[in-house]
Every structure is written in structure tokens, then in C-alpha cells.
Amino acid sequence: MRLFRSDELLGIARETLDFVLEASEETHPNEYMGFLRADDARKLDLDRDGKVITDVLVIPGTESSPTSASVRSHMKPNDMRSVGSVHSHPNGALRPSDADLATFGQGEVHIIVGAPYGWGDWKAFDNEGNQTTLDVLDVEVPDEHFFDFTQEDIDRELADRDDGGFLSWFR
Predict the structure, then answer these.
(1) The domain 9-170 belongs to what CATH superfamily?
(2) Alpha helices in the chain (DSSP H)
(3) Which amino acids are annotated catalytic?
């Protein structure tokens, strides 16, 4: 057994990319945004060292419009599995804007998905905004790692809560 495993990012699980494409389409005409998380490839029965993107973390309170998405950065957990971000461009442009580049500092990879949100409508970028390759891998994502909810579900849950201010969210 090796004490240290490779931190190389091997790719994204097909199921996770499916989720990203569907969530981006459902959020249209507004931008979709989330954070990418990865698991050790060996835990996914890959005979390679490295990491595979398996999760998308959607932060409560994310606000989006047709031209931007913003996250309350204090709500983002300090997560050792975090490897980057994903967001959509409803206008279909598959290149980072200046605003995107300003947020790319954290993480190894940043995915931009463009309308109409098909399999060819996404690109991956490094933290300096250079296009990079990200393989789509056929691995089985454990159920507890895959979030099966949408921004609409989150908004509905928040609307159902009493209006007791920010701290009421923690009750």
C-alpha cells in the first residue's frame, strides 16, 4: 500500500456531467453554478492513482441571472475534496469572461457549459483560463455522493421557511 496517492485529476464521471448538463438546462435562462468535488479513483474501482470528479455542490443562497451567478463565499465549506467550479453561460459562449477568470484562482479545473447544454456544449479550463482536457469516465458514482435536487427545490424549501432572518436557516 502506498502512503501518498497521486493528486492528478483523471476526469469527470459521466453521471456527474449528465447532472451538470441537466441542471444548466433547467436553470436556463439564468446561469447555473456549483463547486466540483472529487473522489479517489481507487474508491471508484479504477486501477489508477488520481482523482475523479463525482459531485457538484450547490451552495444555498446562490443567486443567478441570465448574465451572472454569485455565491455567498462564506457559505462555501472548506472541503478537501473541492477541485474547482462549474457554471453555465446561457448565451452559449464557451470561453471564460473576465469575471470568470477572477474567480478561477481556487481549484484545478473550471467547467463552462453553454446553451443548448448538449454533450458537445462544455469546456474545461485551468485556473488561469487556459482550455484543458477533461476525460469523461464511465464509473459508478456512489448514491450518497450524487445530489438529486435542483435550484428550484432549494428555492422552494427556502420559501417554505419562516422569515426569521439569516440564522433561521440553521434551525
Answers:
(1) Cytidine Deaminase, domain 2 (3.40.140.10)
(2) 14-27, 98-103, 151-160
(3) 31
